[in-house]
Amino acid sequence: MSQLLCIPFKKTIHADLKEKLAKLINANFYQTSSIFEDDLIKLSKLREIAVKVNVSETDLKKLKEYYIQFCQLKIKFPDDQLEVTWFETLGLKSYGRKCSSFQFEELNLVYNIGAMYSMLAVDNNNGSPEGQKKTCQYFQLSAGCFDYISSHVHESNDISMDENAISSLKYLMLAQAQETVWWKAIGDNLKPALTARLAYQVSLFYELAWKEAKMSELIKSDWQKRFQERSLYFVAVARYRQSLDFEERKEYGAKVAALKSASTHLNEIKLEDESVIAFMSKIRESSKIAERDNDLIYLQPVPPVLPTLKPAPMVKCIYFEGLKQPFDDKILESIGGPLFKSLLPISVMEASTAFNERQDEYVQQHVVAPIKALTNLLKEHIPTFELPEALKPMSENDLQAYELSMVELQLNNKNISDVLHQIRLILEQEASTDSSLRSRHGSLRWTLKDSQTANSEYIQRYEKISSYLNQGRKVDDDTFQLFLTVDKALLTNPVKLPESTDPLVKEASDVIKQRDAYIIEVEAKSASNSLLPKIISLYKKTRATEFEDLFAEHLVIFRDDLTFVQQEKKRNEVLIRKLVEHTERDTTKRLDARDLYVQDFKYSLKILEDVKENIKSGSTFYQDLMKSATALLNDVQKFEASRKEEKKGLEMLLMSNATDS
Predict the structure, then answer these.
(1) Is the CB of residue 171 less than 8 Å from the CB of residue 136?
(2) Which backbone phi and psi does 531 adopt, to 5 degrees?
(3) What is the spatial distance between Cα 203 and Cα 106, in angstroms, rounded to a whole number?
(4) Of 143, 165, 492, 629, whose CB count within 10 A is highest?
């Protein structure tokens, strides 16, 4: 079996977790660190395994135990408090990186567990059936570690690892696991058709490892070269095995083609490896014999293109127990239970924060929002010209944004028009070519469908999209004309209206001011009545982690505020009734300048709202239409290419017939 690669351990230096966690407990929790002395010592000892790790099943078990126990810390402790240092060892130069997030330590631990599995895999690579089985399993477990890192490295803003390097290592482990399966299949003398598919999958895994390695700054060039050449080697192996399958099926021409393909791939390999050189020699000899036998005996045509090899993946990423479920009770029991079990969890603090947010939502929903709704309802019944606060001038930039949006709609229309023009040119050119060839060869001999029939579907789609585009252009023009009717000077100049002298309106305005002040008071009341002290007290007494009932009892402090809302509802009804009667009595009142000003202002705002809606719907309309036009262009290009091939084929046939006759 070929030499397999293993991943070197990352290195780390001593970090006094005992001292750091003790300080965190004393500074942030309601307990003292002395209570957790044994847990602190045990965790520190587990980390020392990561500092001085050796290749063994025992150290692997300890590494996994440390990983699972370390994962428990983020339930209890705040993040970004424990600074650790890890050193990259994959590249030519080793460099260190410091970070304080839990995830940084966790992912580096998973990395070293993956590295440990790769080393144990190589150690068990002794050629025995049991050794092959273990090697394959360990490589898959190693791949699972690197796959886990790939899927979690984005969870933090701090990118702590080279993603391409991690992906490359994952595919390397899968390639070597698949290679182990292939070797066993060869040893078991399985059919060439299957061993070819197994070998091809090995090649694909190595190819993926090589592609990711090329984009990494960590993977060394000699490893990159090895990945590439192992990929080429196993493509050649797959073709060789395929040639044996062709021989069994008496397809001797295809056998020659497969051996040539194998030779082509081997010639791309520059690595001076004895096994590769021997295999090259074997392929050349086999190819020479196959060609001679086919030329003298079988006389079968050699196909220019071989059937596509179908890979047969027999390996996958396997995740060690506890990698994805470090909080599982059974897993924790297997390592003696979680550390810091009696420490008041950070989740209690988080629960308090969550309940404070829910309390704020409750106040907003049951007190603040109803009061604001009552105020808005009241404002609707105040005479229009008595509402200066509703007349807010716009800026020149706001109006300019409308103009720019309409220009953008016109550009979208033009872009789609350009796509349609391109479609029409393609269809016209195809029709012209068809007509020319039909005239040259005659309708009886030129048997292809005429263009008018063949492209009718595309013409219909073209005309439909063109119709929609014209409709869109008309709506854009109408929208622009509508925008021109807006009184821009009215909307952008400061609003200056005298205060109302109407006693009823003044009363309504005073009520609105009182309610605004009340909202400020109730929000301050909510902010100053946190649930945290009650939660901590209950947790210490009962160890409860559910606080819904406590929260419901706590909300009683807002009972008077709910009563206030009901009182304001009745007050609103009385005021609105008076305002309605007041408005009805004043229906015959002659409009003055203030009335006209407000009406003109609102009219222009209404026009702007209509313009805004047209712009919004127009943007969606053009996005959908561009998708349809682009899809049609792709279909037309495929149609034109297909027709071109058909014409070429028919013309060659007609010319051939003419020559023969």
Answers:
(1) no
(2) -85, -10
(3) 32
(4) 143
Chunked mean pLDDT (size 10), the chain, 661 residues: 85 90 82 88 89 91 93 84 90 85 93 97 92 96 96 72 93 97 94 96 97 93 94 96 95 96 91 82 94 94 93 96 90 87 72 85 92 88 58 80 90 93 92 89 87 88 93 92 85 67 77 91 89 76 75 89 92 88 64 66 84 90 92 92 89 82 61
Q: Give the whole-angstrom CA distance, residue 80 versus residue 102.
A: 7
Burial of 498 (0-12, 13-18, 19+ CB in 10 A): exposed
3-state DSSP assignment of residue 444:
coil
Domain boundaries, the chain: 1-161+317-344, 189-313, 349-447+466-634
Identify any residues that bridge with 86 across adjacent strands, giving them in sequence order.
Answer: 12, 97
Nearest to 340 by CA among 15, 33, 653, 650: 33
Structure-token pair, residue 6: 């293993």
Strands (E), 29-69: none
Strand partners, 97: 86
Tokens 């090329």 appear where?
Answer: 214
Predicted TM-score (pTM) of this structure? 0.57
Residue given tokens 């599995």 in the structure block: 117
CATH annotation of 1-161+317-344: 1.25.40.280
Question: Quick one: tokens of 27?
Answer: 């500074």
Output the CA–CA distances (angstroms, integers) from residue 120 to 48, 111, 132, 146, 566, in the order listed.
Answer: 21, 14, 12, 16, 73
Could you give the C-alpha distances from 256 to 197, 237, 245, 327, 522, in angstroms and in order?
18, 14, 12, 58, 88
Burial of 278 (0-12, 13-18, 19+ CB in 10 A): exposed
* Cβ neighbours for 240, distance < 8 A, ≥ 6 positions apart: 196, 258, 259, 262, 279, 282, 283, 286
